[in-house]
Amino acid sequence: MILGIDATRANKPQKTGVEWYSYYLIRALAAEPSQHTIRLYFNSPPEPGLKNLGPHVEYRVLHWPFKYLWTQARLSWEMLINPPDLLFIPAQIIPVLHPTKTVTTIHDVAYKPYPESYRWRSRFYLDFAARLAKRLPLILTVSEFSKKEIVKYYGIPESHISVIPLGFRHETTLPASIVATKFNIKEPYLLYVGRLERKKNVHSIIESFNLVKREDWGTRFRLVLVGVKGYGWMQIENVIKRSPYRDDIKIVGWVTEAEKHTLIAGATALILLSAYEGFGLPLLEAMANQTPAITSDQAALPEVAGTAAIIVPRGNNTAVCNAVHNLVFDAAMREGIVREGMRRIKQYSWERTARMTLEALDALYKRRI
């Protein structure tokens, strides 16, 4: 089998969730023992981490002079004149012309229940992708929650959807002093990692932080926000400006993987209160770095967290403040969460994700449709 993979998201210089999924999965798929040829499609030359993945990996850099429509125009044309046996799209945006055996990963359908958190252009493009996805013989997704949402909003039969959880890679951390100096961060601090956008409920994290700061035990805490600015940033910025503790809120922006893991390792707690998550990778990153997490009872977050995090009701900022208090003063609770996280993280690896993905793709390749 010639397995074609859209590698454009994996090749982005500043990666976030879906880009890292594409990157690590492609590398892990290439490392799996297989008789298949992997053909990677790029819109620009591959970065060093995606080069020299083995003699069974082919590279196709499909040049396109315009900023937009590479997938729908250039990749579609390639599928017409020189298609692979099976095409895998790790990030849902499917070319309008594609082989009969095409598979995509749908990470979530957040724009359906939360349309106000997306620009109209994004909603239009995602709706277009959804119409194409409904015709595919197989959909991959990352959690049981997302599977149910895909069935609910897209009407795709459960039998056409396979759940393959994300993997995890243990990153080397940097000396804490180097990262602290670079970003001017002092302990103790609470940490958020993710895009700074409306659907992530960053405003609720800030309001919870305000409650922590009002307590005698919480006056020394700082809040560190790690991630790029997304849709709804202006509202988040206004919440920060209104906070009486705005001088103790640090916006770091995008960081490298090593910097991110170093910041997680140094935090008193990681806080993730998203209204909607298809998975919630920062929870695994907290577990691996032995940092307790506080997360909401929404979407896939309880599924991923299990008992390795403190789960609070959505919108209950007092519960978040109380959770921070308990992590500061209840050593047994803190140690229990960390211990459970170290046990739970062993379930996740990119090798396992790649193996399950390859098995699903191989089964489809051998199937008559």
TrEMBL record:
Glycosyl transferase family domain location, by residue?
Answer: 182-338
* GO MF term (any one): glycosyltransferase activity
Q: Where is the Glycosyltransferase subfamily 4-like N-terminal domain?
A: 17-168
Q: What InterPro entries has UniProt attached to this entry?
A: Glyco_trans_1 (IPR001296), Glyco_trans_4-like_N (IPR028098)
Record's keyword terms, sorted:
Transferase
Which Pfam family, any one of them, does this sequence belong to? Glyco_transf_4
What PANTHER family does the entry give?
A: GLYCOSYLTRANSFERASE WBBK-RELATED
What is this protein identified as? Answer: Glycosyltransferase subfamily 4-like N-terminal domain-containing protein
